[in-house]
Recover the amino acids of this structure.
């Protein structure tokens, strides 16, 4: 994939630097007042202040744009900032968002609490049923949102079916694709209008930094949205992207720092290599654990026995990322397994170069009530593994010895 290594910017570095340097600066100097006016009003492209745009960050965005073929890309300082920025742009008081209760903990809380306090309703429904999603949409729906593989449930929805429902209703299909990198999963081929990525995961190159990306494919016009329809058209940008970039991103101040953009540009260059190794190991471990007597069930949609297998194979190919979940016989056994790991680290996060184990119910969802966890299908017996770059035999041996205790 040659776009990953492309240098989108002209080679005007005074020292001929091969990598894009880190422009660690807050502001940029101008020769005249007229030049300042042109840059500040957007008549001439240029950098004015790093909360608005920065050359190192723009270089990273341009790389992502080339790899995805998107119309526009905007980087943020975390995945949550990319999610909140997107929905603050799309939603309005009196409007609603249609999504699944199977969401990353902070994303769920953002919809259920933060957006709610601004008068936005969130309608939780079964996203594996396009008709259930269709029944939840009405004239005040601002967007339909889902994660392409939910965690820890490992559920897969039919994106093309959801996209057809969304296009018929004139609402955008927004997908969090964090669990499979855009180097391997082409969200726009399945009708996703706006893609959101926590680049903290694969793209950071091994947990080097927090980051988030909004990828706009330009397929949602926004003309019917009362929030977007009245903003001035901007060339080469959807109404959504114009508002996100010109208003929400600047006002929230959730910009990606230049050193993060530098690290994540390097991380992007090796993402395909890391993804291929870790997802292959992940699938092999999931297959082996299915045979283990201490394991009650394994959830990984690339397993032939998984209920989402054929849909997952159609959408994601041979692998479904480097994360899987499995169930022990009890919460106590799940804790004992985690306590006895030697090689695999006890930590949150996904797609570090090291393998990580976590008990989602007591950590990511630990402050939720038991009733909320039950409604979200977050079980006390479930363990989540994010598979890293270690040797597969070493990983299996560590898992087997921890299960034996
Ligand atoms: N989306 C998913 C699927 C996640 O797993 C996470 C974090 O774990 C996020 C979004 C939030 O990303 P960040 O931690 O970069 O804010």
């Amino acid at each position: 994939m040659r776009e990953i290594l492309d240098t989108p910017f002209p080679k005007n570095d005074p020292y001929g630097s091969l990598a894009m340097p880190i422009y660690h600066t807050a502001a940029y100097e101008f020769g005249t007042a007229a030049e300042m006016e042109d840059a500040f009003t957007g008549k001439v492209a240029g950098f004015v202040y790093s909360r608005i745009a920065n050359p190192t960050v723009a270089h990273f965005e341009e790389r992502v744009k080339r790899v995805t073929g998107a119309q526009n890309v905007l980087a943020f300082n975390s995945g949550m900032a990319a999610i909140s920025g997107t929905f603050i742009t799309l939603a309005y008081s009196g409007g609603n968002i249609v999504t699944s209760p199977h969401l990353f903990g902070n994303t769920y809380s953002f919809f259920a609490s933060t957006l709610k306090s601004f008068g936005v309703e969130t309608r939780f429904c079964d996203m594996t049923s396009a008709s259930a999603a269709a029944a939840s949409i009405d004239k005040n729906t601002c967007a339909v949102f889902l994660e392409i593989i939910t965690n820890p449930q490992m559920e897969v929805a039919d994106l093309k079916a959801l996209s057809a429902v969304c296009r018929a209703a004139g609402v955008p299909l927004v997908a969090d694709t964090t669990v499979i990198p855009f180097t391997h999963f082409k969200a726009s081929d399945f009708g996703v209008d706006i893609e959101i990525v926590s680049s903290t995961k694969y793209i950071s190159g091994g947990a080097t930094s927090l980051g988030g990306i909004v990828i706009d494919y330009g397929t949602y016009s926004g003309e019917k949205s009362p929030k977007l329809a009245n903003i001035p058209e901007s060339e080469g940008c959807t109404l959504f992207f114009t508002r996100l970039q010109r208003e929400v991103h600047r006002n929230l101040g959730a910009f990606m720092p230049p050193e993060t953009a530098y690290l994540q540009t390097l991380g992007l260059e090796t993402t395909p290599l890391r993804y291929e190794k870790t997802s292959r190991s992940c699938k092999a471990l999931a297959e082996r654990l299915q045979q283990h007597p201490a394991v009650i069930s394994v959830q990984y949609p690339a397993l032939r026995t998984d209920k989402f297998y054929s849909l997952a194979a159609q959408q994601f190919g041979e692998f479904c990322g480097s994360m899987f979940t499995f169930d022990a016989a009890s919460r106590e056994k799940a804790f004992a397994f985690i306590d006895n790991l030697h090689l695999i680290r006890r930590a949150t996060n996904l797609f570090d170069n090291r393998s990580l184990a976590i008990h989602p119910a007591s950590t990511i969802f630990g402050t939720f009530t038991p009733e909320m966890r039950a409604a979200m299908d977050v079980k006390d017996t479930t363990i989540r593994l994010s598979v890293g770059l270690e040797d597969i035999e070493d990983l299996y041996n560590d898992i087997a010895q921890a299960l034996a205790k």
Notes: The two ends are 45 Å apart (CA to CA). The chain has a mean pLDDT of 95.
